[in-house]
Design goal:
The complex is a heterodimer of chains A (374) and B (312).
Chain A lengths: L2 H23 L1 H18 L10 E7 L4 H12 L3 E4 L4 H10 L4 E5 L3 H6 L6 E6 L3 H21 L11 E6 L6 H32 L1 H6 L5 H30 L8 H26 L2 H18 L12 H7 L3 H15 L3 H25 L6
Parallel strand pairs in A: 1-2, 1-3, 4-5
Antiparallel strand pairs in A: 3-4
Chain B lengths: L5 E10 L2 E11 L4 E6 L5 H8 L7 E6 L2 E2 L4 H7 E4 L11 H11 L6 H12 L15 H13 L5 E5 L7 H16 L3 E6 L2 H4 L4 E6 L2 E6 L1 H8 L3 E8 L5 H5 L4 E7 L2 E6 L6 H10 L3 E8 L3 H12 L4
Parallel strand pairs in B: 3-8, 3-9, 6-7, 7-8
Antiparallel strand pairs in B: 1-2, 1-4, 4-5, 9-10, 11-13, 11-14, 12-13
Helix pairs in contact in B: 3-5, 4-5, 8-11
Classes of the chains: A alpha/beta (374), B alpha/beta (312).
The structure holds adenosine-5'-diphosphate and magnesium ion.
Adenosine-5'-diphosphate binds next to helix 1 of chain B.
Chain lengths: 374, 312
């Protein structure tokens, strides 16, 4: 290690150590970071219900008959479902796992034959149960469509109605708490991270100590790192708390990779800390930084993350907006990992999006963070 | 490399269309205490910030400790200590943590840090205050702690921006004792103040007004140059009513209320103490005493301001 790097690390360490001392002396910080999540999670764990339409659905047509095509037309004829391309039952499962489709209708080979013979002809409905609320609605809607369809088939008035065999995947009990925990985790991490960094940096400006730092050899990267590292650690602790609470109090399973949950959390936190940094660099005073920080983290993570309102239910303009909301990717990644299982592959896109956000926002903040006063 | 610790040439800084500092040139020798005087808004802090590499000059250049402030601000920052005008320690932390932090920020590490911290604590008279929360200290002690933090890394040049504002006279005296000790051991001190009495501690002083350096020299030379006459102090009661009568006396060069009295500058050849006293008494002054006084820097300041802006 050269002495240049040594000095760099020493200064980062000095900044970070000082930040830890501030945190230790100000119980509000710890309250925001650690007590708030518990309260919020318990409050939000009850879940809320919403109506949805244009649910992405894949039909795996194993029969390829006139009757099976007619059934698919009937399903997509309503405004409730949007078609997702798929071929067989296996491909449909993949679409579900990737989150491309929220439900799959599997029509087995021989469907038409059984129907023509006047026998019971079951089709299978697979539903992504990680969102219990949506899953229940999908089942209700499909059930209604199939009943109407069966009844309207000319010449088969006396045939038995189509039987629907429902399998809810990943969240068999369709419990909202399961669905809420990942969302609440994203929401809490976002708020605490943005708010705490925005506050600590704005405080340096207000106190005048920023000027003192700028007059010292401490570089802006050292200030940024020294400020971010302690809050990153705190954020990870917070994530651990939320996850533990979710698994113990709400029985949220973790089917996927636990380390990946923390990787996603780390990337998300880095982005949020960068956002807090940017807010405080622009605001330079604690009051404005608090408000801008809270607003810029609370609104997107609560409303645009898919936590409360499923993204596919939003007007297109909001849907487009969610593309740049990191909470969306964290919520998706956490839900996938906790409720569906899998590891890096199933959340690779989410991780990429989170990483891109973190890099862009940190670069922006560091660039805007001039080490001059005017 | 210049031998001067600070060298400013035609230094200027604008904020938008406003010229905060205009065409300031001076140099400060190593080990000198250089005082920078001026009213609020005169441009003192702006000058200091340019010299510390915190503000880019709009015009002119400056070298501090041999480095150009515009081109090598990082080298400048490593060589200087700075106490900003705004009190900027971490009030929520103990004295000890403030010292540790600034030591780390300046890259002092390992065993060198506690040793050096003990040295500056001793020098600044902060012994035994380590565990005290900084916010609970009286202003004078905080000021000396800020000084201690600014000299941990043994800077060659120390910039102090109104270090003794809001500090009681005794604490100011203690503070200046430390400053003179530092200068005696070779540190160059650049200090702004608006306490004119403190300027007497400086080897040379510069007077700032409206962004310009209007006078610069040793206090004695400034007094000779700007206060050519003799200075008198008129004391008594009800003097406010007598000003026009005093002004009408022959040989009065300048005239200024000073505390409860009147501060006069007079042409020695035309000065007539008895007639001035009589005029004051006639105009309503009671228990009038006229005495000769030493010219103060205040007289210099007023005279210099008068010359720089004849209209005022
Ligand atoms: N960052 C800034 N932006 C705009 N105006 C400034 C800025 N800093 C200082 N000024 C103005 O420049 C003038 C000189 O300020 P300053 O150098 O702080 O004076 P002093 O330290 O002598 O009181 C003042 O009128 C002040 O309002
Ligand atoms: Mg000032």
């Amino acid at each position: 290690m050269t002495s240049r790097q040594g000095r760099f690390l020493r200064r980062v360490a000095a900044m970070a150590a000082k930040e830890v001392l501030h945190i230790r002396r100000d119980p509000r910080t710890l309250y925001i970071a650690l007590a708030l999540p518990v309260i919020m999670l318990l409050l939000l764990g009850f879940g809320l219900s919403f109506d949805i339409e244009r649910i992405p659905l894949v039909v795996a047509d194993g029969d390829r008959s006139a009757a099976s095509r007619e059934l698919a037309r009937a399903v997509f004829g309503s405004r409730d479902f949007a078609a997702v391309a798929g071929s067989d039952a296996r491909a449909a499962q993949t679409e579900l796992r990737r989150g491309q489709a929220m439900a799959a209708l599997v029509i087995p080979a021989g469907f038409a034959r059984e129907l023509d013979a006047g026998r019971d002809s079951p089709v299978q409905l697979l539903v992504d149960g990680s969102d219990g609320n949506t899953a229940r609605q999908i089942m209700g809607k499909i059930d209604a469509i199939l009943r109407a369809h069966g009844g309207s088939r000319a010449g088969f008035a006396d045939s038995p109605p189509l039987a629907v065999k429902v399998s809810t995947l990943w969240n068999p009990a369709s419990r909202s708490a399961l669905f809420m925990v990942p969302g609440v985790a994203a929401y809490l991490l976002a708020i605490a991270a943005v708010l705490l960094t925005a506050l600590t940096i704005a405080a340096e400006w207000e106190r005048g100590s920023m000027e003192q730092l700028f007059a010292s050899p401490v570089g802006r990267l050292e200030i940024v790192l020294g400020k971010l590292l302690p809050y990153l650690a705190l954020g990870m602790l917070q994530l651990l708390l939320v996850i533990s609470l979710g698994t113990t109090v709400f029985d949220v399973p973790i089917h996927g990779s636990l380390p990946m949950i923390f990787v996603a959390g780390l990337l998300f936190l880095t982005g949020m800390l960068g956002q807090g940094l940017l807010v405080s660099v622009l605001a330079r005073n604690q009051l404005v930084a608090t408000q801008a920080g809270a607003l810029s983290s609370l609104v997107p993570s609560l409303l645009l993350s898919g936590m409360l309102v499923p993204i596919e239910n939003m007007p297109w303009i909001l849907q487009a907006l969610t593309v740049v909301v990191p909470a969306r990717y964290l919520v998706h990644a956490l839900r996938t990992l906790m409720l569906k299982g899998g590891g890096f592959q199933v959340i690779a896109l989410d991780l990429l999006a989170l990483l891109a956000f973190a890099v862009v926002i940190l670069a922006l903040a560091t660039l805007r963070f001039k080490r001059r006063l005017a | 490399m210049s031998e001067m610790a600070i060298e400013a040439v035609g230094l200027g800084r604008d904020f938008g269309a406003f010229r905060a500092v205009t065409d300031v040139s001076f140099s400060v020798e190593a080990g000198e205490i250089f005082g920078y005087l001026g009213a609020n808004g005169a441009g003192k802090s702006t000058t200091i910030r340019m010299l510390c590499g915190l503000l880019l000059p709009s015009r002119g250049t400056a070298r501090v400790a041999g480095f150009d402030v515009g081109q090598k601000p990082e080298a400048v920052k490593a060589a200087i200590g700075y106490m900003s005008q705004k009190f900027s320690l971490y009030l929520d932390l103990p004295v000890r943590d403030n010292l540790d932090f600034f030591g780390g920020a300046y890259g002092i590490s390992g065993r060198a840090l506690p040793r050096r911290a003990a040295e500056v604590t001793e020098l600044c008279g902060l012994g035994g205050l380590g565990p005290r929360i900084t916010g609970t200290l009286p202003a004078g002690l905080r000021q000396r702690l800020a000084l201690a933090c600014a000299i941990l890394h043994r800077p060659a040049v120390l910039f102090l921006d109104e270090p003794t504002a809001c500090v009681d006279p005794q604490a100011r005296r203690l503070f200046w004792r430390v400053i003179r000790q530092l200068a005696a051991s070779g540190t160059t001190i650049f200090v702004t103040t608006h306490y004119l009495d403190e300027a007497e501690y400086c080897r040379r002083i510069g007077l700032m007004a409206a962004g310009r350096l209007i006078a610069l020299d040793t206090p004695a030379a400034l007094k000779r140059a700007y206060v050519p006459g003799r200075v008198f102090l008129v004391r008594g009661e009800n003097l406010a009513a007598t000003t026009s009568a005093v002004r009408a006396q022959p040989g009065i060069l300048a005239f200024e209320p000073f505390g409860a009295g009147l501060h006069l500058q007079a042409e020695p050849a035309l000065w007539n103490e008895a007639s001035v006293k009589l005029a004051v008494e006639r105009a309503g002054g009671r228990e009038v005493v006229v005495e000769a006084a030493d010219p103060s820097l205040e007289d210099v300041f007023l005279a210099a301001l008068g010359r720089a802006e004849p209209a005022a």
